[in-house]
Every structure is written in structure tokens, then in C-alpha cells.
């Protein structure tokens, strides 16, 4: 398979006041924290959200690796439900010195374009800013950051910027082009 250039943009907020929340969607969308670490559920979300946009780095993780990651203090998964059905998620991962990464964020393809993404991102960023309130021993959040790339959905960068995230780094690297893994073979049209 040929190599393709992939641009990765890193964005940040450096104060809670940077967050510009989106309006909630005009549908029954609720966001809940998955409080019980569940490798099965987390892998389902990861594969279902990222299957059409080449999320592959965690597909080889063992059950034990998922469990270890999810049990790290401060790692949180917030799930958006549309009329009771999982629609997408945001995963928060604390780092050193009050830095919180929005490690993963996205919607299952069937729920994109329904005004859920901005609301979920707003909610997730707010939870990143108050993460230490739920995890005694963590440093108060001083910075929230994330990255997106040219393989992500066409509206990803705009959503991040509309929520108040500012670009701080850009990298271009060559990657081997590969078919989308999907949550299962043939799940998405080519």
C-alpha cells in the first residue's frame, strides 16, 4: 500500500474560561460517565467511533491492557446516549502537572450531523476542567489539550475551534495507507 501524508494538529485550552459551550441538541441526548471500568464497552466505543477514520492504535490491546488503562486514576469515559442508544464518547486522561488530554472523542457514524458532537465536546471539556474535583490527589487542571488529524471527520477541527481550543502545533508525517478497520469488515461503504 502507498504512503499518504497525514497532518496532525494539536489544540489546547489554558483556562476554563476558554471553553465556548455548544447549544444542546434538540433531541433526547444524555451524557453519563461510565463509572465501572469495562474493557468490552470501551473497546466497543473505540471501534464503533473510530472504525471509519482509521483508529487502529488500540485494536491490538489485550483485555488486561484495556483494564489497566481504564483503572488509572482520573481516566474517565463520558458517553452520549441518543434516546438511550450510545452515540459517541469522550475519554479524559490526566497527565502530569494538571494537564488533561482529551484522548479520544467522536461519534458513531449514524449519529454524526445531528448536533450531538459540539454538545458532547463541550461537556467533555468541562469535565476535563473539573477532573480533580472527582479524583482526590490529582492536581487541579491547568490545561486541556487534544489532537486531531486529516483522517478525522471534516467537521472535527471546526468543532474544536468553536469550543475555544487554540492550535499550538502541527506535524505532517507519512503513513501507510490502509483500509478502514470498521467495527467489523464491510461496516462502512468504501
UniProtKB/TrEMBL annotation:
Cited Pfam families: Acetyltransf_1
Signal peptide location: none
Q: Which residue ranges traverse the bilayer?
A: none
Q: Where is the N-acetyltransferase domain?
A: 29-190
Q: Which domain of life is it from?
A: Bacteria
Which SUPFAM superfamilies is this protein grouped with? Acyl-CoA N-acyltransferases (Nat)
Q: PROSITE patterns annotated for this entry?
A: GNAT
The UniProt entry, under InterPro entries, shows: Acyl_CoA_acyltransferase, GNAT_dom
Query: What is the name of this protein?
Result: GNAT family N-acetyltransferase
Originating species: Streptomyces doebereineriae
